[in-house]
Amino acid sequence: MKTLLQLENVEKYYGSKNNVTKALDKVSFGVDKGEFIAIMGASGSGKTTLLNCISTIDEVSAGNIYLDDINITDIDEKDIAKFRQKNLGFIFQDFNLLDTLTIEENIGIVLTINNLSPEKVQPMVKEIAAKLGIEDILNKYPYQVSGGQKQRCACARAVINKQSLILADEPTGALDSRSAQMLLEVMEDLNQSLEATILMVTHDAFSASYANRILFLKDGKLFNEIIRGQKSRNQFYHEILDVLALLGGDVSNA
Ligand SMILES: Nc1ncnc2c1ncn2[C@@H]1O[C@H](COP(=O)(O)OP(=O)(O)OP(=O)(O)O)[C@@H](O)[C@H]1O
Fold first, then answer.
1. Could you tell me the pLDDT band of residue 140, with boundaries at 50, 70 and 90?
2. CA distances (Å), 92 to each of 35, 119, 124, 175, in order?
3. Which CDD domains match (predicted)?
């Protein structure tokens, strides 16, 4: 499998000389195209910092991050927004849909802001909406649809431009357990049927059990890695709980 994302000795420091926090400490790992990876670790272990560095929202202090062989730590400030739109899809906890746009417009926004004509955008939106079972609500506004439908809209938006990497930060954090399971099933489907590569930060062992591989961070360092392989999701879930027990800290076992 081709390596899509490669981190080499990534370091991130916050603060200045007398008050430095080392949020990431020589973190190195690779992600193959088509993998579904979860990042776990206690509060303050560096998960969000890692995601922010990969998503170019934050700059690394040292080290390199390659996406499809492009060193994203070298991208010029003026080209960053374009890079994100083209290559990265985001699924946030609160979905970040724009209230004044319809579901159809929300899904197609990345294409529209890149000046793709409505004639081209519409069939692309319809295709992904049909795949996610939300083709009936395309003319509605976010306030007119259910939480589950909003999730699907956010997922559709994250993959419509065939973005090479989907980044999800605690996507199930604000959901009840039924909605969380539905979202995870959609993400699993995007991973399996569209071969979307997903990197998801989560506190939650149940959510993480949907991934193929889990990286555990402790104090900004990679602590451990486990692979699902042929294990059932339930077996994997229990393996995750074992690692979390070893890790200690305040990682939730919800
Ligand atoms: N902007 C910042 N300025 C200073 N320190 C920061 C900043 N952002 C994060 N940190 C520190 O960096 C470390 C890693 O934080 P980070 O938010 O990445 O952890 P996390 O694993 O995502 O935590 P949580 O699960 O609570 O969201 C922590 O010690 C945190 O206090």
1. very high
2. 19, 28, 22, 12
3. ABC_MJ0796_LolCDE_FtsE (cd03255)
The single-letter code of the amino acid at 235 is Q
The model's pLDDT over 31-68, given as tens digits with 9 standing for 90+, comes to 999 999 999 999 999 999 999 999 998 999 999 999 99
Q: Above 0.95 for ipTM, yes or no? A: yes
SS3 161: coil
Mutate-to-test residue for ligand 1 from 11, 48, 222, highest number of ligand atoms within 8 A of CB: 48
Are 23 and 220 contacting, i.e. CB atoms less than 8 angstroms apart? Answer: yes
Mean pLDDT along residues 88-92:
89
Q: Which fold has domain 3-93+165-247?
A: Rossmann fold (3.40.50)
What's the predicted TM-score (pTM) here? 0.90
| Burial 40-68, CB ≥16 within 10 A → b, else e | bbbeebbbbbbbbbbbbebebeebebbbe
**What distance in angstroms lies between residue 45's CA and the mean position of ligand 1's atoms?**
7
14 lines ligand 1 (CB under 6 A): yes
